[in-house]
Amino acid sequence: MSELLLQGQHDYVKPEEVRVAVLDGAESRNFFELDVNAVQARLNALPWVAQVSVRKKWPNKIKVFLTEQTVASRWNGNRFLSKDGVVFKAPDRVKVPLVSLSGPDDQAKRVLEAYYGYQALLSAKGFRIAKVNLTARHAWELTLEGGTQLFLGRSDELSRLQRFVDVFPDIQPRELIAYVDLRYDTGLAVGWKKNEEKVNDQSRR
């Protein structure tokens, strides 16, 4: 076996990695002796591989169809999260900006789904999320592009986020906002980069 036919998406998996995994000893075996299951197992062990199928093609070819992980975000700083909410570790070969999500590993899919919901609400007003964190106490914390932090607490996150969207145009000066604490029933607190703080109570608006 001496020829490799590689098909499918491979933006992150290097062809040489595939070749090494496939042809590891395969070149010394004939068509009938090659263990396709062993080759497939080696390919599935490659970090960026999500699914793979291997076929032998007479007389000396190995045909590989490969599907990579569909990366959605960074996870807890040193791993990635797939679009299916699966946490995986792989060499960092991503060339586009990714949102950073963090939280307990068993809550990864929940955090990803929450991010999609938060971003959908915020994007209508031109905001983009840089980070989402679910704390050990299951409280939500967001960081917007530009560095402003939003503290949403453990309940009513979407309504609290809507409150931020409604009130934000009235908060000045915007460039000095360090954080907005929305863990109130009817109001919010603003933390300033100059270590000042003021409370904006919606009940007075």
UniProtKB/TrEMBL annotation:
> Quaternary form?
Part of a complex composed of FtsB, FtsL and FtsQ.
Q: What is this protein called?
A: Cell division protein FtsQ
Q: Which Gene3D superfamilies match?
A: Cell division protein FtsQ/DivIB, membrane protein fhac
Task: Name its cellular compartments.
Answer: Cell inner membrane; Membrane
Family, as annotated: Belongs to the FtsQ/DivIB family. FtsQ subfamily.
Q: Entry's Pfam families?
A: FtsQ_DivIB_C, POTRA_1
Q: Which residues form the POTRA domain?
A: 1-69
UniProt keywords, alphabetically: Cell cycle, Cell division, Cell inner membrane, Cell membrane, Membrane, Transmembrane, Transmembrane helix
Q: Its encoding gene is what? A: ftsQ
Gene Ontology cellular component list: cell division site; plasma membrane
Q: Which PROSITE patterns match?
A: POTRA
Its placement in the membrane is given as: Single-pass type II membrane protein
Q: List this protein's GO terms for biological process.
A: cell septum assembly; FtsZ-dependent cytokinesis
Q: Does the keyword Protein biosynthesis apply?
A: no
Per the UniProt record, the source organism is Aeromonas diversa CDC 2478-85
